[in-house]
Design a protein that fits this description.
Layout lengths: L11 E6 L6 E9 L4 E4 L5 H9 L3 E5 L4 E11 L2 E10 L6 E14 L28 H28 L7 E8 L2 E6 L8 E7 L7 E11 L9 E7 L4 H21 L1
Antiparallel strand pairs: 1-2, 1-4, 2-3, 3-6, 4-5, 5-6, 7-8, 7-10, 8-9, 9-12, 10-11, 11-12
Length: 263
């Protein structure tokens, strides 16, 4: 019995097979809803048509909505394919893969920290700021001035050391990530607050076409994801375009299939 699902004309889908030898993913667009008919927009030769016709584990992936359906091909005529949907594909990791990609990020907006920075002054700068009473001798004032100067010198040196050792997260570098069509998890050198907004760059395959996107931090904890970085930070995509989402889904499918072949 065919399952019921809401599709509309013009919806962009992916026809996916995760088979070891005949795996594929073809882009398609809905041209008719009853029966569900799609036009394959990927270039198909006779071999591709044969793969599609014989596919036993065909999945219809709706990347924009983030779900997929098991299906079978009812009819093929040219690049027009009539599909019969069987059931919702409930695989939790269907749109997720652990892989290594080149990434970088920078903080766009930070949420307020509990017990964090305040508007309090940075402490006294001169002896006059200490508000000493008249009973303090000139010798004691000179000692206080020396101690105050030493305090500021140590503080300045500490700030210089912290800045020198600060990791520049804006530099592109290969990282192990857990990637899906809705978000990403990766190792970060710093803990980030839930709600922080980061500007993330991801290079999937073509270095000339990176994905640049704002992400919102969902959680950041110490579990040493990927064996590097002090924190594992999980983020949700904020403004991922439909074309970039399709690129991500294609990349996930391709990585999953390559991993399947290597087993």
């Amino acid at each position: 019995m065919e399952t019921k699902v809401m599709f509309y004309r013009g919806d962009d889908l992916l026809l996916v097979s995760q088979g070891r030898e005949a795996g594929f993913e073809y882009a398609a667009r809905v041209t008719k809803t009853k029966p569900l008919t799609v036009q394959v927009t990927s270039i198909l030769d006779e071999s591709g048509l044969a793969k599609l016709q014989k596919a036993e584990n065909l999945l219809v992936a709706y990347a924009t909505k983030g779900y997929a359906y098991k299906a079978k091909v009812a009819q093929i005529e040219g690049d027009s394919v009539v599909l019969s949907l069987i059931e919702r594909h409930e695989g939790r990791d269907f749109f997720r893969v652990d892989t290594v990609i080149t990434t970088s990020y920078e903080v766009v907006r930070e949420m307020p920290r509990a017990g964090g920075k305040t508007d309090k002054p940075n402490g006294p700068k001169t002896v006059d700021d200490l508000d000493l009473d008249d009973s303090v001798s000139q010798g004691e004032r000179r000692i206080a001035a020396l101690m105050l100067n030493l305090y500021h010198e140590v503080k300045m040196l500490r700030e210089q050391v912290v800045e020198r050792n600060k990791i520049d997260t804006r530099q592109l570098a290969p990282k192990l990530v857990s990637l899906s069509a809705s978000g990403v998890r990766f190792a970060t050198p710093y803990e980030h607050q839930r709600g922080d907004v980061l500007r993330l760059t991801m290079v999937l395959e073509d270095p000339n076409k990176p994905i640049n996107i704002n992400v919102t931090v969902v959680r950041s904890d110490r579990d040493f994801f990927g064996g590097s970085g002090a924190f594992s930070t999980a983020c949700q995509f904020k403004d991922l375009s439909s074309s970039d989402r399709e690129r991500l889904v294609r990349y996930v499918f391709r990585s999953q299939r390559q991993a399947l072949v290597r087993r």
